[in-house]
Design a protein that fits this description.
This protein is of the alpha/beta class. The protein has nine helices and four strands; from the N terminus they run ααααβαβαβαβαα. The radius of gyration is 22 Å and the shape is elongated.
Protein backbone atom coordinates (compact mmCIF):
# COMPACT_ATOMS: atom_id res chain seq x y z
CA UNK A 1 0.00 0.00 0.00
CA UNK A 2 1.42 3.39 -0.99
CA UNK A 3 1.04 6.20 1.51
CA UNK A 4 -0.09 9.68 0.39
CA UNK A 5 3.45 10.92 0.78
CA UNK A 6 4.77 8.25 -1.57
CA UNK A 7 2.30 9.32 -4.26
CA UNK A 8 3.91 12.75 -4.63
CA UNK A 9 6.68 13.68 -7.03
CA UNK A 10 10.22 13.78 -5.62
CA UNK A 11 10.50 17.47 -6.57
CA UNK A 12 7.53 18.43 -4.41
CA UNK A 13 8.83 16.40 -1.48
CA UNK A 14 12.23 18.12 -1.54
CA UNK A 15 10.73 21.58 -1.94
CA UNK A 16 8.47 21.05 1.06
CA UNK A 17 11.31 20.46 3.53
CA UNK A 18 13.62 23.07 1.98
CA UNK A 19 10.78 25.60 1.99
CA UNK A 20 10.08 24.97 5.66
CA UNK A 21 13.79 25.32 6.46
CA UNK A 22 13.88 28.68 4.67
CA UNK A 23 10.71 29.85 6.41
CA UNK A 24 12.18 28.83 9.76
CA UNK A 25 15.29 30.90 9.04
CA UNK A 26 13.14 33.92 8.16
CA UNK A 27 11.15 33.59 11.39
CA UNK A 28 14.31 33.40 13.47
CA UNK A 29 15.53 36.50 11.63
CA UNK A 30 12.34 38.35 12.51
CA UNK A 31 12.81 37.43 16.15
CA UNK A 32 16.32 38.88 16.01
CA UNK A 33 14.95 42.07 14.49
CA UNK A 34 12.46 42.33 17.35
CA UNK A 35 15.22 41.97 19.92
CA UNK A 36 17.34 44.48 18.03
CA UNK A 37 14.47 46.92 18.12
CA UNK A 38 14.27 46.50 21.88
CA UNK A 39 17.91 47.54 22.14
CA UNK A 40 16.91 51.07 21.25
CA UNK A 41 14.26 51.08 23.96
CA UNK A 42 16.28 49.65 26.85
CA UNK A 43 15.33 49.88 30.50
CA UNK A 44 18.95 50.30 31.58
CA UNK A 45 22.41 50.45 30.00
CA UNK A 46 23.08 46.92 31.29
CA UNK A 47 20.05 45.60 29.43
CA UNK A 48 21.27 47.31 26.27
CA UNK A 49 24.72 45.70 26.51
CA UNK A 50 23.20 42.26 27.15
CA UNK A 51 20.80 42.60 24.22
CA UNK A 52 23.59 43.70 21.87
CA UNK A 53 25.66 40.67 22.86
CA UNK A 54 22.73 38.28 22.41
CA UNK A 55 21.75 39.75 19.06
CA UNK A 56 25.36 39.60 17.80
CA UNK A 57 25.58 35.89 18.64
CA UNK A 58 22.21 35.13 17.06
CA UNK A 59 23.14 37.04 13.88
CA UNK A 60 26.36 35.05 13.62
CA UNK A 61 24.41 31.80 14.07
CA UNK A 62 21.88 32.86 11.43
CA UNK A 63 24.68 33.60 8.96
CA UNK A 64 26.25 30.19 9.53
CA UNK A 65 22.90 28.40 9.23
CA UNK A 66 22.09 30.49 6.15
CA UNK A 67 25.32 29.40 4.46
CA UNK A 68 24.44 25.81 5.38
CA UNK A 69 20.98 26.12 3.87
CA UNK A 70 22.49 27.66 0.75
CA UNK A 71 24.91 24.74 0.58
CA UNK A 72 22.02 22.25 0.69
CA UNK A 73 20.20 24.00 -2.15
CA UNK A 74 23.35 24.30 -4.27
CA UNK A 75 24.33 20.68 -3.67
CA UNK A 76 20.94 19.45 -4.86
CA UNK A 77 20.83 21.92 -7.76
CA UNK A 78 24.34 21.15 -8.99
CA UNK A 79 24.16 17.44 -8.06
CA UNK A 80 27.65 17.87 -6.69
CA UNK A 81 28.90 17.93 -3.11
CA UNK A 82 30.37 21.17 -1.72
CA UNK A 83 32.81 19.87 0.88
CA UNK A 84 33.64 23.17 2.65
CA UNK A 85 29.94 23.70 3.39
CA UNK A 86 29.14 20.16 4.58
CA UNK A 87 29.64 20.92 8.31
CA UNK A 88 27.40 23.99 7.99
CA UNK A 89 24.81 21.94 6.09
CA UNK A 90 24.63 19.49 8.98
CA UNK A 91 24.31 22.39 11.42
CA UNK A 92 21.52 23.95 9.33
CA UNK A 93 19.50 20.74 9.29
CA UNK A 94 20.02 20.01 12.98
CA UNK A 95 19.14 23.60 13.95
CA UNK A 96 16.17 24.24 11.68
CA UNK A 97 14.58 20.77 11.62
CA UNK A 98 12.59 21.33 14.86
CA UNK A 99 11.44 24.73 13.57
CA UNK A 100 10.34 23.11 10.28
CA UNK A 101 8.31 20.49 12.16
CA UNK A 102 6.76 23.21 14.34
CA UNK A 103 5.82 25.29 11.30
CA UNK A 104 4.30 22.24 9.69
CA UNK A 105 2.09 21.68 12.71
CA UNK A 106 1.02 25.34 12.70
CA UNK A 107 0.01 25.12 9.03
CA UNK A 108 -1.48 21.64 9.57
CA UNK A 109 0.98 19.87 7.26
CA UNK A 110 1.24 16.17 8.03
CA UNK A 111 4.43 15.55 10.06
CA UNK A 112 5.16 12.30 8.21
CA UNK A 113 4.98 14.23 4.96
CA UNK A 114 7.61 16.68 6.21
CA UNK A 115 9.86 13.89 7.46
CA UNK A 116 9.50 12.06 4.15
CA UNK A 117 10.59 15.26 2.43
CA UNK A 118 13.59 15.44 4.76
CA UNK A 119 14.52 11.84 3.90
CA UNK A 120 14.36 12.68 0.19
CA UNK A 121 16.63 15.70 0.72
CA UNK A 122 19.05 13.61 2.80
CA UNK A 123 19.21 10.84 0.18
CA UNK A 124 19.85 13.39 -2.54
CA UNK A 125 22.68 14.95 -0.54
CA UNK A 126 24.27 11.55 0.13
CA UNK A 127 24.08 10.56 -3.54
CA UNK A 128 25.95 13.70 -4.63
CA UNK A 129 29.06 12.40 -2.89
CA UNK A 130 30.03 8.97 -4.30
CA UNK A 131 31.61 6.74 -1.67
CA UNK A 132 33.70 3.69 -2.56
CA UNK A 133 33.41 1.23 0.31
CA UNK A 134 34.06 -2.42 0.98
CA UNK A 135 30.98 -4.54 1.80
CA UNK A 136 31.97 -5.01 5.45
CA UNK A 137 32.02 -1.21 5.88
CA UNK A 138 28.30 -0.99 5.12
CA UNK A 139 25.58 -1.67 7.69
CA UNK A 140 22.04 -2.56 6.67
CA UNK A 141 19.70 -1.61 9.52
CA UNK A 142 16.19 -3.05 9.49
CA UNK A 143 13.21 -2.80 11.87
CA UNK A 144 11.94 -5.93 13.64
CA UNK A 145 8.42 -5.28 12.27
CA UNK A 146 9.58 -6.69 8.92
CA UNK A 147 9.39 -10.14 10.49
CA UNK A 148 6.13 -12.08 10.43
CA UNK A 149 4.54 -11.42 13.81
CA UNK A 150 3.53 -15.04 14.35
CA UNK A 151 7.06 -16.35 13.69
CA UNK A 152 8.66 -18.00 16.72
CA UNK A 153 12.21 -17.63 15.37
CA UNK A 154 12.94 -14.09 16.54
CA UNK A 155 15.75 -12.32 14.69
CA UNK A 156 16.24 -9.23 16.83
CA UNK A 157 19.46 -10.42 18.42
CA UNK A 158 20.57 -12.78 15.64
CA UNK A 159 19.20 -12.54 12.12
CA UNK A 160 20.55 -16.02 11.42
CA UNK A 161 17.64 -17.41 13.45
CA UNK A 162 15.53 -16.83 10.33
CA UNK A 163 14.51 -20.10 8.63
CA UNK A 164 14.11 -18.35 5.24
CA UNK A 165 10.57 -19.55 4.73
CA UNK A 166 9.85 -16.52 2.54
CA UNK A 167 6.77 -15.38 4.46
CA UNK A 168 8.34 -12.03 5.35
CA UNK A 169 11.08 -9.65 4.20
CA UNK A 170 13.76 -11.01 6.54
CA UNK A 171 14.64 -13.82 4.13
CA UNK A 172 15.12 -11.21 1.37
CA UNK A 173 17.48 -9.25 3.61
CA UNK A 174 19.53 -12.40 4.18
CA UNK A 175 19.73 -12.92 0.44
CA UNK A 176 20.94 -9.34 0.07
CA UNK A 177 23.52 -9.89 2.80
CA UNK A 178 24.76 -13.07 1.13
CA UNK A 179 24.95 -11.41 -2.26
CA UNK A 180 26.72 -8.21 -1.29
CA UNK A 181 28.55 -9.27 1.87
CA UNK A 182 27.30 -6.34 3.97
CA UNK A 183 26.54 -6.47 7.68
CA UNK A 184 22.91 -6.62 8.81
CA UNK A 185 21.32 -5.57 12.08
CA UNK A 186 17.66 -5.86 13.13
CA UNK A 187 16.51 -3.35 15.73
CA UNK A 188 13.43 -2.88 17.89
CA UNK A 189 14.11 0.82 18.29
CA UNK A 190 16.67 3.60 18.43
CA UNK A 191 18.62 2.18 21.37
CA UNK A 192 19.33 -1.15 19.68
CA UNK A 193 20.00 0.58 16.37
CA UNK A 194 22.64 2.77 18.02
CA UNK A 195 24.13 -0.37 19.58
CA UNK A 196 24.50 -1.95 16.13
CA UNK A 197 26.18 1.22 14.84
CA UNK A 198 28.57 1.28 17.79
CA UNK A 199 29.35 -2.43 17.38
CA UNK A 200 29.92 -2.51 13.62
CA UNK A 201 31.35 1.04 13.23
CA UNK A 202 30.16 1.34 9.62
CA UNK A 203 31.35 3.93 7.12
CA UNK A 204 27.84 4.09 5.62
CA UNK A 205 24.36 2.86 6.53
CA UNK A 206 21.34 1.73 4.54
CA UNK A 207 18.40 2.10 6.90
CA UNK A 208 14.89 0.72 6.52
CA UNK A 209 12.14 2.27 8.64
CA UNK A 210 9.07 4.48 8.72
CA UNK A 211 9.28 8.26 8.27
CA UNK A 212 9.54 8.98 12.00
CA UNK A 213 12.30 6.47 12.78
CA UNK A 214 14.26 7.22 9.60
CA UNK A 215 14.24 10.98 10.20
CA UNK A 216 15.49 10.62 13.78
CA UNK A 217 17.95 7.85 12.87
CA UNK A 218 19.54 9.86 10.06
CA UNK A 219 20.16 12.74 12.47
CA UNK A 220 21.44 10.44 15.23
CA UNK A 221 23.98 8.83 12.87
CA UNK A 222 25.38 12.10 11.48
CA UNK A 223 28.01 12.52 10.07
CA UNK A 224 27.84 8.87 8.89
CA UNK A 225 26.09 8.91 5.48
CA UNK A 226 22.71 7.18 5.61
CA UNK A 227 20.49 6.21 2.69
CA UNK A 228 16.92 5.80 3.92
CA UNK A 229 14.51 3.25 2.43
CA UNK A 230 10.90 3.62 3.56
CA UNK A 231 9.07 0.47 4.54
CA UNK A 232 5.58 -0.36 3.32
CA UNK A 233 2.77 -0.74 5.86
CA UNK A 234 -0.15 -2.63 4.32
CA UNK A 235 -1.43 -3.61 7.78
CA UNK A 236 -0.59 -0.37 9.56
CA UNK A 237 2.54 0.80 11.41
CA UNK A 238 4.89 -1.64 13.17
CA UNK A 239 2.99 -4.76 12.05
CA UNK A 240 4.09 -7.14 9.29
CA UNK A 241 5.68 -4.36 7.27
CA UNK A 242 7.43 -4.86 3.94
CA UNK A 243 10.26 -3.31 1.96
CA UNK A 244 11.40 -3.23 -1.64
CA UNK A 245 14.40 -5.55 -1.92
CA UNK A 246 15.28 -3.79 -5.18
CA UNK A 247 15.36 -0.41 -3.43
CA UNK A 248 17.60 -1.78 -0.68
CA UNK A 249 19.92 -3.39 -3.23
CA UNK A 250 20.29 -0.17 -5.21
CA UNK A 251 21.15 1.76 -2.05
CA UNK A 252 23.89 -0.75 -1.19
CA UNK A 253 25.19 -0.71 -4.77
CA UNK A 254 25.56 3.06 -4.58
CA UNK A 255 27.99 2.75 -1.68
CA UNK A 256 29.81 -0.13 -3.42
CA UNK A 257 29.97 1.76 -6.73
CA UNK A 258 29.49 -1.23 -9.03
CA UNK A 259 31.50 -3.77 -7.04
CA UNK A 260 28.25 -5.46 -6.04
CA UNK A 261 27.30 -6.23 -9.65
CA UNK A 262 30.58 -8.02 -10.33
CA UNK A 263 30.30 -9.85 -7.03
CA UNK A 264 26.76 -10.91 -7.87
CA UNK A 265 27.78 -12.17 -11.29
CA UNK A 266 30.65 -14.12 -9.83
CA UNK A 267 28.39 -15.87 -7.34
CA UNK A 268 25.79 -16.78 -9.93
CA UNK A 269 28.24 -18.23 -12.44
Amino acid sequence: MISPTQAQTPQVRKRLFLGLLAASLVIVGLLVFTVWYLIYHPITLFHQVVLIGVVSLIILAILLVGFGLGGIVLTIWLAQTIKPLQPLMRVAIATLFPFAIGLGRIFKIDVDKIKYSFIEVNNELVRTSPIHLRPEQILLLAPHCLQETSCSHKVTHDINNCRRCGKCAISSLLEIRDRYGVRVGVATGGTLARKHVKEYRPKAIVAIACERDLASGIQDCSPIPVLGVLNERPFGPCFNTRVSADGVGKAIEFFLQGKSDRKGEGESS
